[in-house]
Design goal:
two-stranded antiparallel sheet, alpha+beta, 4-stranded antiparallel beta sheet, 2 domains, elongated, 151 residues
């Protein structure tokens, strides 16, 4: 659904609201309670280039918008992978300083740091993992037996 700009004549607030094309001319209610009129942008920019040579993205007519979204998603993914690598580096350092330990000996604390678990805590965590694995297997079996309508 397209997004349009509205401006309230009562309080001066300018805001965006979505509306289908048939209702795009109708005023929208402002936060102050008055009805705000739709404003027409002062400048419009449009570019459509249907010519594509070789392999390229689907031409939606708004490739610059598509590119911007793709770039934002890629930047977000890169940051998340960097965070994962930083956590893994901390885990590797802990394991290097504690020979004979594995990643299952580590526990993530509420503040985000990692510590080596004591023997009793490690045994409890192992039991919890076992119960979780059994429960997940049962759920998979149950889901497999359900019809598509029941899923």
């Amino acid at each position: 659904m397209p997004v349009y700009e509205f401006q309230c004549k009562n309080c001066g607030l300018r805001f965006e609201a979505s509306a289908n094309v048939e209702n795009s001319e109708k005023p929208k209610k402002c936060d102050c309670g008055e009805m705000a009129e739709r404003i027409v942008p002062e400048k419009l920019n449009f570019h459509f280039d249907p010519k594509t040579e070789g392999i390229g993205p689907q031409n939606t007519g708004i490739s610059e918008v598509d590119y911007g979204v793709d770039r934002a998603v890629a930047t977000d993914a890169e940051k998340k992978w960097d965070d994962i690598e930083a956590r893994n580096a901390v885990k590797r350092a802990l394991l290097r300083d504690n020979p004979g330990m594995t990643k299952e000996d580590l526990s993530r604390e509420p503040d985000g740091t990692y510590e080596v678990m004591e023997k009793g805590l490690k045994e409890s965590a192992g039991r919890v993992r076992t119960v979780n694995n059994v429960a997940m297997q049962l759920l998979k079996r149950k889901r497999k037996n359900l019809s598509p309508q029941e899923r």
